[in-house]
């Protein structure tokens, strides 16, 4: 605490995610239904698995188990992206990773703003998958210019939000009253506006170019398009959704069900058609509809090394080459079977993954190890002798193929389109006004630091390759 009594960025983020959750539940009632289902399934899993419950309790995460882990927004201009970076920084959220979605037919590129330090993640893991529209990929030059003009005129932040970001930057933080004001003001940016900025005609032209373009350009701000709590059993929630009157997307994205979870599994309920109105030439409002907002759930596993990730990507490609999941769910069972079959090639055992250099682990001294300092064993011997133990490092980022699947199912499944894959991280970072953190380097750093903590027993802070 400083002399100015600043509240911590972690605290501001926790308040912000709470406020966002309340707003979204209010705006999208089906999301509240999903939250209740997730809480029920999580309770049932915990009731049946005392070890898991104890581990979550020990790491202080039991209470927040069913809370949101992430949300997503889509921005229209580079200025919006740069300001968003500054606003998230006040909440201790920093850009990690670069995701090119053009490859998957969605004209955006993205990063995830998230807490980075382990302590911060533990206090509140909320992150926002943030995409920037690639207007440069709209083929119709006239439409591109019109869209750019509409976007150039809108202001997605309130004046007070901007003032508070500047104040936090200048003074190094916000006090309690300013922090509360900041949360309130920044929340406005994420609010739904059912009155479009454009006419029905322009909406249709944007929509014809790509549904996502219509979603970004037509409205006053980058409405939060989904929130995502954590589930302890994603297959169960997916199966129970229909009985709650919510339609799940066809398949769960990511790896198959495994005993040693890897990366990230996600599914969502399909975006709802919502009433909006468009401004007419006569100045009157005309009714229409728009689909944008949905709810999602996620289950996370161990972070993979570049070698593990390459294997994951290769197996995912092979599964999809065998069965391409249809949007209507008609071949979901075949897809799941193919996925499970192909992924049999990915070791499903922590130690095997570790020895093969496929995943990142955090190493620590056991009780016996703490008494055995002064040894200089190689790591494997120290583990074999029970002096050093290892735990999976959880993946805190996203997956481009999964993200594309989530985008697609919520843009209307016919929206898949071809864009030439055109990753441009340099341009993205220039527009962002900062570079993004390399996720692999970050996980490797956590692993290395954990090994350094074992140096009293092991000779070198290097894990198996
Ligand atoms: C973002 C989709 C990506 C995820 O969980 O992979 C995402 C969007 O639809 O804007 O949130
Ligand atoms: Ni998501």
Would you give an account of this structure?
There is one protein chain. This protein is 45% helix and 16% strand. It is α+β, with helices and mostly antiparallel strands and 465 residues long. It has 2 domains: 9-254 and 267-299 and 402-434, Roll (2,3-Dihydroxybiphenyl 1,2-Dioxygenase, domain 1), CATH 3.10.180; 360-393 and 438-465, no CATH class. It has a 5-stranded mixed beta sheet. It binds 2-oxoadipic acid (OOG) and nickel (II) ion. 2-oxoadipic acid is lined by residues 72, 74, 129, 131, 225, 266, 296, 398, 402-403, 406-407, 410.
List the helices and strands and how they pair.
Blueprint: E1 6-7, H1 9-27, H2 29-48, H3 50-58, E2 68-75, H4 78-90, E3 94-100, E4 108-114, H5 118-123, E5 127-133, H6 141-153, H7 159-171, E6 174-175, H8 176-189, H9 200-209, H10 211-217, E7 226-229, H11 234-240, E8 264-269, E9 273-279, E10 285-291, E11 295-300, H12 306-322, H13 332-342, H14 350-355, E12 361-365, H15 367-371, H16 379-384, E13 388-392, H17 400-411, H18 425-432, H19 439-452
Parallel strand pairs: 2-5
Antiparallel strand pairs: 1-6, 2-7, 3-4, 4-5, 8-11, 9-10, 12-13
Distinct small molecules bound, one entry per kind: 2-oxoadipic acid, nickel (II) ion
- Mind telling me the CATH superfamily name of the largest domain? Uncharacterised protein PF07063, DUF1338
Helix percentage range: 40-55%
Kindly give the count of domains: 2
| Class by SSE composition | alpha+beta
Specify the overall morphology.
Answer: globular
Uncertain segments are none
Biggest sheet record: 5 strands, mixed
Query: Percent of residues in beta strands?
Result: 15-25%
CATH topology group of the largest domain: 2,3-Dihydroxybiphenyl 1,2-Dioxygenase, domain 1
* CATH class label of the largest domain: Alpha Beta
The residue-averaged pLDDT reads 92
């Amino acid at each position: 605490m400083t002399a100015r009594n600043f509240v911590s960025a972690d605290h501001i983020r926790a308040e912000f995610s709470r406020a966002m959750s309340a707003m979204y539940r209010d705006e999208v009632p089906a999301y509240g239904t999903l939250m209740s289902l997730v809480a029920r399934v999580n309770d049932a899993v915990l009731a049946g698995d005392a070890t898991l419950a104890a581990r979550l309790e020990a790491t202080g995460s039991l209470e927040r188990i069913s809370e949101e882990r992430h949300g997503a927004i889509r921005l229209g201009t580079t200025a919006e992206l740069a300001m968003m970076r500054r606003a998230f920084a006040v909440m201790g959220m920093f850009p990690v990773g670069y995701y090119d979605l053009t490859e998957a037919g969605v004209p955006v590129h993205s990063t995830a703003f998230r807490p980075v330090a382990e302590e911060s993640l533990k206090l509140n893991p909320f992150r926002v998958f943030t995409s920037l529209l690639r207007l440069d990929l709209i083929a119709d030059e006239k439409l591109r210019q019109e869209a750019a003009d509409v976007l150039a005129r809108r202001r997605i932040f309130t004046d007070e939000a901007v003032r508070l970001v500047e104040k936090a930057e200048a003074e190094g933080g916000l006090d309690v009253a300013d922090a509360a004001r900041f949360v309130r003001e920044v929340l406005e940016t994420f609010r739904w506006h059912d009155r479009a900025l454009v006419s029905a005609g322009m909406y249709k032209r944007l929509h014809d170019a790509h549904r996502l373009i219509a979603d970004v350009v037509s409205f006053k701000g980058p409405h939060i398009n989904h929130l995502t709590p954590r589930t302890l059993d994603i297959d169960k929630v997916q199966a129970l959704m229909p009985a709650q009157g919510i339609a799940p997307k066809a398949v769960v994205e990511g790896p198959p069900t495994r005993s040693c979870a890897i990366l990230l599994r996600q599914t969502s309920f399909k975006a709802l058609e919502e009433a909006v109105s468009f401004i007419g030439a006569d100045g009157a409002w005309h009714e229409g509809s728009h689909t944008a907002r949905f709810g999602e759930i996620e289950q996370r596993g161990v972070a993979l090394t570049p070698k593990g990730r390459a294997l994951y990507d290769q197996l995912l490609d092979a599964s999809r080459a065998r069965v391409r999941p249809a949007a209507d769910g008609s071949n979901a069972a075949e897809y799941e079977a193919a996925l499970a079959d192909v992924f049999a090639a990915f070791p499903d055992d922590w130690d095997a993954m570790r020895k093969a250099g496929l995943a990142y682990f955090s190493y620590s001294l056991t009780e016996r190890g703490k008494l055995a300092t002064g040894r200089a064993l190689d790591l494997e011997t120290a583990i074999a002798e029970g002096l050093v133990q290892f735990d999976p490092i959880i993946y805190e980022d996203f997956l481009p193929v999964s993200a594309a699947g989530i985008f697609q199912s919520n843009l209307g499944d016919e929206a898949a389109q071809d864009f030439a894959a055109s990753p441009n991280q340099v341009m993205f970072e220039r527009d962002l006004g900062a570079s993004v953190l390399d996720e692999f380097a970050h996980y490797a750093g956590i692993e290395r630091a954990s090994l350094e903590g074992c140096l009293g027993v092991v000779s070198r802070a290097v894990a198996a390759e």
